[in-house]
Amino acid sequence: MKVKVLCRNPDDYVRETTRDIQRVPRNYDPTLHPFEVPREYTRALNATKLERVFAKPFVASLDGHRDGISCITKHAKSLSTIISGACDGEVKVWNLPRQECLRTVQAHEGFVRGICSRFCGTSFFTVGDDKTIKQWNWEAPGYGVREEPINTILGKAVFTGIDHHQREGTFVTCGQTVDIWDEQRSSPIRSFSWGVDSFSCVRYNPVETELLASCASDRSVVLYDTRESAPLRKVLPFMTNEITLCFSLYTYDIRHLDVPVTVHMDHVSAVLDVDYSPTGREFVSASFDKTIRIFPKDKGHSREVYHTKRMQHVICVRWSADNKYVLSGSDEMNIRLWKANASEKLGLLSAREKAATHYNKKLIEKFQHHPQVRRIARHRHLPGDILKQKRELREMREARRRKEQNVRKHSKPGSVPLLTEKEKHVVAVVE
Amino acid sequence: MLVFGFWTTKICNTRSTQQNRNVLFCLKKDPFPGEAPIPQKQLQKFQRGKKCKVPAGARERLKEAIAISEAMSEHAQKQAARYDLLLPEDAGFLEGDEDEDTNTISQADIADAVDITSGSKYFNLHLSQFGPYRLDYSRTGRNLLVGGKKGHVACIDWQTKDLKCEMNVMETVNDVKWLHTEAMFAVAQKRWLYIYDSKGVELHCVKKFNDVLRMQFLPYHFLLATASATGFLQYLDVSIGKEVAAICTKMGRLDVMAQNPHNAVIHLGHPNGTVSLWSPNQKESLVKMLCHRGAVRSLAVDKTGTYMVTSGLDRKLKVYDIRAFKPLHSCFLPAGASCLSLSQRGLLSAATGEIVQVYQNVLGSNPVSKPYMAHRLRGQIWGLAYCPFEDVLGIGHGEGFTSMIVPGAGEPNFDALDTNPYRSHKQRQEWEVKALLEKVQPELIGLDPGQLSKVDQASFEQRHKEQIEALGFDPLAKDKFKPKTKKKGRSSAGAIEKRKRKVAHEDQRDEIRQSVQERTEREKELKEKSNEKKLGNKSTLDRFRK
Fold this sequence. Notes:
Chain A is of the alpha+beta class.
C-alpha cells in the first residue's frame, strides 16, 4: 500500500530565534475565510468610527496681529513661511513649524488690501488703502537697520488686489482698472477696464500664464489675455430670486463660460475667499458664517467643515503647498492652522501604519453607500445658529420648489421648463 | 551636462555592440511569451460572484468605474490563483495495492508504515469508568476536550499528550465545546450550562440555559448556540456574556444539531424526519426540509455550505444540496449511522454501533459504493470529530477515546492569520483582539452571508406595506387636522367646523388630483403597450394567443 499522512515539521512553522519575526504561512482559499462580506463591513464600520474619533483638525493658532487679518500669502519656495496682512496696515511674516512671528512691518496706513510673493522667493509686494504698491525683501534687515521697502509706487486710486506672474517680472493690480506693471517701471504698461465701477480681485492663471481673471463690482467676472490690448470676455450672471438663497460657489470651464460645471452649495452666508489645493482635486472656501469648508472639485457638497467658537468671520483662506494644511485668517486677529485631512496622523508613519491607513480608507470607500456607514461618515457637528440657518434656507428652497411645481402643474405643459440647478445659474457671456 | 551626455552615449554604444555580437549566436525568442497560464479550475476557486453587467443607459463615469473595479478583481483573482504554487504541504492519501481494498487496511498497519510522529497519532485512551465520551477539537486542532457522560471532563494537548486539566463535575455531561480559544470551554451539564477555564476553574454557571443537550460554537460571531431538551434554541454571546436570542422551536426535544460553517445557520434534526434551519433573527425556522421517513439521527454540513449529509432511523444516508434544497443521492446502510462528521477535505465518517466507516467523494452527484476506510472499536460510539488541519479522526466511545489516522482528511495548508496551530502566546493575543474587533453582529446571520454586498432591491413602498401590516396602522400617515383655538370670538363651534371643512376639501382635492394623475399614467402605459402590440410581428397563429 502507498500511504502518506500529513506531517508538518515544526521547524518550518516556528521561528528559529526570538530575534526573528514570526512565520506567517498564508493560504488565500476563500473556503478557509468565510463571512468575508460581513467581516469587511464590520471593519469598515470600525474604520469610520475611528476616523471620527481621530478627527482633530485644529493644529495651532498664530496670535499677534492687532487687527483683523485681510490677506494671507504663501512663500513661493518655502513651505514653512507665510505672510499675512492686517486691517491696520501691519504685515507679519510667520514661521509655521515654530508658530512664531519672524518679522513685523508697518506696511501701509489703512487696510493691507493684497500681498503676493515673487516667484523667485526673494521679495514680496503689498498694496494698501494708502494707494501705494510696496516691494519688500523676504530677508529681515540687520540689527538696528530700519525696515524700508525696496520699491514704492504711488498710484492714483486705491488698489484692491495684487498678483504676480509665475515666471516673468510683471505683476497685476486691480482697483478702478486692472493694471499690468513691470517691476522696473513706475507706471503700468497696460491698463484694462470695461466700464465697471471697480474691481475687487485679480488672479493670474497658474498654468496658462498669460491669462488673468478679475472680479468686478457689478458681480461679473472679466477675463484678460496679457498679449492682447483689450479684455477677452465678460461673464454676467443672471439675476433671479433663487440666487439670493444660495451662498454657493460655481466652477466654470474657461472654454464654456455659459453654464457652470458644478455648483457647490453648503455655506449659509457669503463666501469670502477660495483657494485650490496643490493637487487641484479639492478647494477650501472661507465664509462670513464663521466656517471654512473643504469641497471636492466635482461634488456639490462639502466633505469637511471646520469651525471654532473663537473663530469669527473668516476673511481669507489658503491651502499649504504640501497639501496637508489649511490656513484661515479671520477678523478676530488670529490665523489658524488646520489639517486638510482631519483624521490624518502627522509625522513619519511606519510601513504598517501606512498600510493600515490605506486599507481603512479603501474600506470606507467600498462601503460608503451603506446607511450605517454613511450616517457616521457624514456626521459633522455644526454650531447652533448655522444649523438653524441651514434649516431655514432649506425650508425656503422647498417652498420655492413647491410653488414652481404647482405653477408647472397648472400651466400649459411645456411653458414652464424644468431647469437643473446648473441651468438656473446660466450666465451671459459678452465678448 | 555635455560631458555627461557624451559618457552615457559611449556606454550605450559599447553595450549595443556586445548585444550585436550575441545576437549572431542566439536568436532566441521566449518560447512561452506572455503571462504564465493559470488552469481554469484554479481560477474558478477564487471567483467571487459573477461579472457585473453594465446597465443600458449608464453614464460614462459609471462605465469607467465598473471597468476599473472589474479589472482589479480579475487581477486579485489571478494573483491568488498563482499563489497556490507556493503552498508548502500536500494532502495525504492512502492507496491500496492491486487487489487490496483500502478499507481492509488496519490502523496498526498504517501506523507502522508511516513515520513515528504520524504513527503516534493513532492512540487509545482507556477510560471505561465514566461512560461514553463526547469530544471536541479546538479550532487550531492542538487541544482536545473530552467529556464523559458520567461527569469526567479533561483537556489534553493530544500531540504532546500533555494533560491541561482533568476533573469530574459530579453530574451528567451532555456535551462539551471549546469557545473561541483554548482558554475557555463550555460544558452542558445535567441542569445548567457551565463555562470553565482551561485549568478547570469554573468561571460561569449560566442558569438561563437549562437542560442543554447539544451545543455549537459560531467562531466569527462569538455565539454559543445551544439546543435544549425543552425545545429551546438559545444563543449566548461569549464576548459580552449576554443571551442574544431564545427561540422556542416547538418541535420537541432537540438532540441533533449541526452548524453550517459557511453562513452560521444552525441545522436541527427532528424525530419526525424533518431538518429545520434557524437564525437568531427570526422566531420561525428559515427552512424546513423533510429528509427521512423516520427520525433524523445525525447531520453534517460541509465547509463550503453546499452539501448536507443526513442519516436517519430508516437506515438511509442522504446527501442534499443545501443551496438549492435538492436531494442529490442516498445510500443504504445496513445499520443506520448514529454519528456523522465531515472533514475539511470532504471525507465523511459514519459511526454505526462499534464500527466507524470513512467514505470518500460523497459530496458530488455520484453515489458512493464502498467505504474508504473502516475501523472497529470496543465501545458504543458516542461522538465523532475530525481534527482540523490534521489527518486524524477522533472517536469518543463507551470505553474512552480513540484517535484514528485517516490519510487525506485534513487541509494541508492553513492560513496563519486565521488559525495557526503553531501560534505563539503573543500571536494568540493579537489574533484574539483582532477577532473581537471584527466580530460579526448576529443581525447579519442569514441564508446568504454575502447579502450586504448586493444591491437592495426591495423598494421603499414594499417595506412600508410590510410595516403597515405589522403595526396595523400607517406610521407615516398625516395626523387628523386639529384647528387652533383662536381668541376674540373666532373659535366658536361654527368657525371651527368651517375651518375643518376647508382643510378636508383641500385634502380631497389633493387625493382627486393624485388619482387622476395615476389614472392618466396607467392609460398612457396601456396605450404604449397596445401600440407595441400593434407594431409587433403579426402571424397567423396570433388568434390562438391569449
